[in-house]
Amino acid sequence: MAALLHDAPSAAMAISSDECQFFVTLGERIASLRKARSVTQTQLAEALGVSQQTVHAYEAGRRCIPVSALPVVASTLAVSLEVLFGEEQAKAARGKRGPVPQWQQQIEAVAQLPKSRQQFVARMIEMALAQAMTR
Length: 135
Known about the structure:
Layout: E1 2-8, E2 11-16, H1 17-36, H2 41-48, H3 52-60, H4 70-76, H5 81-84, H6 87-94, H7 102-111, H8 115-133
Antiparallel strand pairs: 1-2
Helix pairs in contact: 1-3, 2-3
């Protein structure tokens, strides 16, 4: 069985029910990650250059999110594409992952900060790295 998903008002394409379910699941995962990171639909929409309503449609599985938008979504939500696709959960089910390194925990903490604070931390890191490279 095929379903129609609309990416733009003038374009429609038939996709299989498996593909449709993939986009529904992906939308649910995006919504969950977005909420867990206190990112609004409006903020995600701005990062993607679309309307808030479009983000809502992606999350509800009513629209296919363009593949080219996925790296922006992952970056905005401070997750890898693997996490966005649910692969990290699949890996965890296959085998335990070791403890997260401290630097990774720190990066994840920085990702939770407001953009202005993230930029400040980034400048501090850049200065520290530049100084360490000259020694």
